[in-house]
Inverse folding.
């Protein structure tokens, strides 16, 4: 394409922007998916789709079944209950319900038959390796980040014995128990060959850094990550603040890795719902600003759970170039808020942001999560480029492709590489 690149007529601009947004390969920077080599940790197929904890929470609004009775059922029986409550007895209007149907439709199944046994028979014919390729292809994913925890008793031994990696599945080192449950975690580290004392001496911080270094290398981690509760404050004298300052952030600087902070999750608001029982709270963005200001050599990938925090996060990102906002996380991942947040971010901080990640827990979900998000993001971009065209600035197709590639992982990779 010549320097005077192909100028887009206003009529075709919207169609071009939409096509680019719907087809540009994406780096999905936060998921709970696993390299197929991690075996049964990777969830996939209709019963895993239906027993997604978002759908469990929605189902209990219609069920008067005791929680423990539901949890004692097989996954298939749980899926039957969810299918009947959310798809047959009520129209599947919610984002998580519609997502299941988008996924099945994109896979070529005829959902109007409402035939769950036939859907199960269709899935039974797939092998996970082929199905993984199919799902990533339909979602347009070039790479994705997993959530990898040394504190997960099922996952840890697989990493310790080692396996041939699928390069599409990039590791991220998740450290919540280290920061949020130090007193329980210290003895674990000691048992694993990292003798530390609960009092958190300088020597213990050094040993925590050795633990982080060993796991960073084992995983070839792209970044470290932690989910912090709404009350998280910094600076502070608590173990979380002290471990961040004297172990985690020095480790990230030494290894040139960002730290992903996911702020605002209130765990076990309703413990009977298990994984579905978490809620949210408004986070303290001043804590984040203090971290960015005090540690300018560290880089922070940040997503916040409360809608009320989104504007503050964008303003904080304008103040600190070592802060990279990402995703419409969890309870904000609904079209209404994805549009609001994407518009807010593009208007306040332009293209130096990663507007979405899938947070997929089930492989097949990437198909719907990216289909839905791409369409919403495309709509906002069409409007933004049309606004530019109205000023006489004519966005060229190479420029639009460049911009969308940045939003879909390029800006993240640049942020990680600095
Ligand atoms: O802490 C997290 O990474 C969250 O994404 C939780 O895993 C949550 O349960 C979830 O799956 N949200 O989408
Ligand atoms: Zn997550």
């Amino acid at each position: 394409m010549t320097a005077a690149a192909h100028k887009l007529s206003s009529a075709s601009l919207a169609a071009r922007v939409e096509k680019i947004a719907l087809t540009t390969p994406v780096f999905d920077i936060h998921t709970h998916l696993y390299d197929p080599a991690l075996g049964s940790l990777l969830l996939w197929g209709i019963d895993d789709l239906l027993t997604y904890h978002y759908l469990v929470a929605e189902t209990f609004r219609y069920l008067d079944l005791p929680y423990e009775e539901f949890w004692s059922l097989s996954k298939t029986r749980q899926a039957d209950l969810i299918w009947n409550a959310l798809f047959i007895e009520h129209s599947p209007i919610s984002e998580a319900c519609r997502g299941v149907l988008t996924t099945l439709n994109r896979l070529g199944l005829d959902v109007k038959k409402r035939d769950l046994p036939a859907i199960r028979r269709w899935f039974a014919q797939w092998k996970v390796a082929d199905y993984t390729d199919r799902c990533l292809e339909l979602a347009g994913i070039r790479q994705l980040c997993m959530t990898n925890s040394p504190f997960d008793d099922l996952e840890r031994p697989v990493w310790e014995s080692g396996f041939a990696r699928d390069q599409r599945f990039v590791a991220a080192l998740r450290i919540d128990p280290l920061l949020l449950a130090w007193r329980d975690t210290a003895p674990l580290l000691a048992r694993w060959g990292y003798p530390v004392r609960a009092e958190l001496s300088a020597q213990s911080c050094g040993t925590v850094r050795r633990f982080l270094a060993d796991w960073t290398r084992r995983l070839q981690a792209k970044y470290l990550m932690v989910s912090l509760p709404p009350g998280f404050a910094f600076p502070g004298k608590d173990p979380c603040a002290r471990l961040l300052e004297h172990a985690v952030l020095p480790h990230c600087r030494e290894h040139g890795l960002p730290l992903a902070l996911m702020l605002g999750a209130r765990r076990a608001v309703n413990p009977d719902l298990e994984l579905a029982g978490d809620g949210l709270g408004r986070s303290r963005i001043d804590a984040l600003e203090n971290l960015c200001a005090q540690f300018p050599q560290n880089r922070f990938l940040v997503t916040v759970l409360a809608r009320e925090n989104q504007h503050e996060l964008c303003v904080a990102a304008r103040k600190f170039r070592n802060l990279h906002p990402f995703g419409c996380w969890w309870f904000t991942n609904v079209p209404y808020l994805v549009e609001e947040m994407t518009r807010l971010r593009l208007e306040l901080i332009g293209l130096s942001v990663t507007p979405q990640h899938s947070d997929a827990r089930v492989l097949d979900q990437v198909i719907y999560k990216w289909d839905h998000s791409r369409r919403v993001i495309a709509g906002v971009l069409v409007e933004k480029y049309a606004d530019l065209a109205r000023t006489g600035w004519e966005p060229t197709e190479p420029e639009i492709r460049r911009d969308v590639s940045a939003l879909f992982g390029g800006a993240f990779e640049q942020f990680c590489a600095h």
User: Anything to note?
Assistant: The chain has one domain: 3-417. The two ends are 30 Å apart (CA to CA).
